[in-house]
Write a structure and sequence with these properties.
Elements (H helix, E strand, L loop, with lengths): L6 E6 L3 H11 L6 E7 L2 H10 L6 E5 L8 H11 L4 E7 L7 H10 L3 E5 L11 H38 L7 H15 L4 E4 L6 H11 L7 E5 L5 H9 E2 L11 E2 L1 H4 L4 E5 L6 H13 L1 E2 L8 E2 L3 E6 L3 H6 L5 H7 L2 E4 L9 H16 L6 E2 L1 H9 L5 H14 L4 E2 L1 H7 L26 H18 L4 H7 L4 H10 L4
Parallel strand pairs: 1-2, 1-3, 3-4, 4-5, 6-13, 6-14, 7-10, 10-13, 15-16
Antiparallel strand pairs: 8-9, 11-12
Helix pairs in contact: 2-3, 5-7, 6-7, 13-15, 14-16, 15-16, 17-18, 18-19
Bound molecules: adenosine-5'-triphosphate and magnesium ion.
Adenosine-5'-triphosphate (ATP) binds next to helix 7 and helix 15.
């Protein structure tokens, strides 16, 4: 009956005779149930509980004691100090043993149980000693359960915090500040969200941030890439099927809607959804019920939908590739994530963030970057957006250079052979007047950047050489000298 570990009690009792009664009752179990302290005053008890967190498991208290804090008031105050503490009240045996009202008031205030004692000094024991011992053991077990549940709640919170910190949205531009505000608003509501923006802009992390900041954060976030599942399988993925629904259905399968019940379903690349699946999706969104393949009755689901697309869905609707009614159902709260080149203030911040992050991951010191090299990064057009920027940082670190020159950066940007991704030739800067570069170095940098610029705006090396007024062989040699080949 008694647990292996020791149960620590705080006894709040102001009559010596009653203290003796409790001690006598507990004596046979003295090695397991220990009265750590006896106090006769409610305020002293509260001070003791506050100054010794975790020291007591169960509080045994007389209902009526001298002093300013007693009874239900004291119960409430103890629970405020530590909600996991369990309280057993000992009351004088009242004449009316069917006073349910009194018992209820104790429980409502937060007591775990109550036991009675004989009036006056009739007995040396608490009335019904076995009940008393049992209630202490049960109270202890309840405390353990509550601690465990507090712990798992904390763990869940920590998980959510970790997920969010891994997917923190970096950036200081007004567009990104605005994006954060939109995410906050979406997290506070349960509305369907449609996130649009070109590839690599951060649509997926926006979806994660909405879910894990919302009320549904402890439930599942279920992502599905609508573009990567063959059309004929989409329905069974989304809605699942019963055993024997079709040949090959050997066991029943839960669909993603069921898995996302109470949570969020993230329909990534929703523009890729085949038309027949669009019809079914629309029906589920309208009815809040799914039709599992091979099942006659529908299943109610509570799922929040966040969709994302890098297509212009309005254009898709016009071209009849996307159902207009579904578009309106999804586009309740639209969020547009702009391309990186439209929020250039974010570029140096993101670059620095990933440079710090990845070099620490690789156990390398963080390289330094010159002003000109940073300029190249900021003026690059970033067609692949943040994803491209992350790759470039990886490539730069892979080069192993501790100082990032224009040359290293240009190489990592993979300018060679690419067309139409110019950086501004006007953005050549002379750098810090305190550290003027020698002419030779500056000349080289300018030549390098000009060559890159011209090559970008030419369809071939031969064309670039022609524009530069150089013989192809000279152009080739100079590129080599500059390390551009
Ligand atoms: N503002 C940001 N701060 C930090 N990391 C970001 C930011 N935006 C994007 N990323 C990172 O860039 C990468 C691409 O982002 P994500 O996958 O969310 O883009 P996407 O818009 O969903 O792209 P696609 O359309 O190709 O699926 C991810 O590794 C993501 O963590
Ligand atoms: Mg994505």
């Amino acid at each position: 009956m008694l647990p292996e570990t020791q149960i620590n009690l705080l006894l709040i009792e102001d009559e010596d005779f009653d203290v003796r009664r409790v001690k006598n009752t507990l004596k046979p179990f003295g090695d397991r149930i220990v009265i750590r302290d006896v106090v006769s005053n409610g305020l002293v008890a509260l001070d003791l509980l506050k100054s010794h967190p975790g020291a007591y498991d169960v509080v045994v208290m007389d209902f009526q004691i001298a002093g300013s804090v007693m009874g239900e008031d004291l119960i409430r105050k103890i629970k405020k100090v530590d909600a996991s503490l369990q309280i057993i009240v000992i009351t004088k045996m009242t004449v009316n043993i069917t006073d349910y009202d009194f018992a209820e008031r104790l429980m409502v205030a937060g007591a775990y149980w109550y036991c009675t004692k004989y009036p006056g000094d009739i007995e040396n024991y608490i009335y019904q000693p076995t009940d008393f011992i049992l209630s202490i053991v049960n109270a202890y077990q309840k405390k353990q359960l509550e601690l465990e549940s507090q712990l798992s709640k904390k763990k869940l919170e920590r998980n959510v915090e970790e997920i969010l910190s891994q997917r923190r949205i970096i950036g200081i531009s007004s567009a990104t500040t605005n994006l954060r505000r939109q995410i906050e608003k979406c997290a506070a509501s349960d509305m369907t969200v449609l996130i649009s923006g070109s590839s690599g802009t951060g649509k997926e992390i926006v979806a994660y941030n909405i879910h894990y900041s919302s009320q549904r954060k402890h439930e599942n976030f279920v992502p599905i890439n609508c573009g990567s599942i063959p059309g004929e399988l989409i329905e069974s993925e989304l809605f699942g099927y019963e055993k024997g629904a079709f040949t090959g259905a050997n066991a029943k399968k839960a669909g993603l809607f069921e898995m996302a019940h109470r949570g969020t379903l993230f329909l990534d690349e929703v523009g890729e959804l085949p038309l027949n699946a669009q019809v079914k999706l629309l029906r589920v969104i309208q009815d809040g019920e799914i039709e599992k393949i091979g099942r006659t009755t529908k299943i109610k689901v509570d799922v929040r939908i966040i969709a994302a697309t890098n297509k212009n869905l309005e254009e898709e609707v016009k071209a009849k590739r996307f159902r207009e009614d579904l578009f309106y159902r999804l586009n309740v709260v639209p969020i547009y994530v702009p391309p990186l080149r439209d929020r250039i203030d974010d570029i140096p911040v993101l670059f620095d963030h990933y440079l710090t992050d990845f070099s620490s991951d690789m156990g390398k010191p963080k390289p330094t970057i010159g002003k000109n090299a940073m300029n190249i990064i900021v003026t690059h057009s970033w067609p692949g957006n943040v994803r491209e920027l992350k790759n470039v940082v990886h490539r730069i670190l892979f080069s192993g250079e501790s100082v990032l020159t224009n040359h290293v950066v240009l190489n990592a940007l993979g300018y060679a052979g690419k067309k139409g991704e110019g950086f501004s030739a006007a953005s050549i800067e002379f750098g810090d007047p305190e550290t003027i570069s020698p002419w030779k170095q500056m000349e080289r940098e300018m030549r390098e950047r000009y060559f890159v610029y011209v090559r970008r705006h030419s369809s071939s090396d031969a064309e670039a050489a022609k524009k530069l007024g150089l013989a192809p062989s000279n152009y080739h040699r100079m590129c080599k000298e500059l390390g551009l080949k």
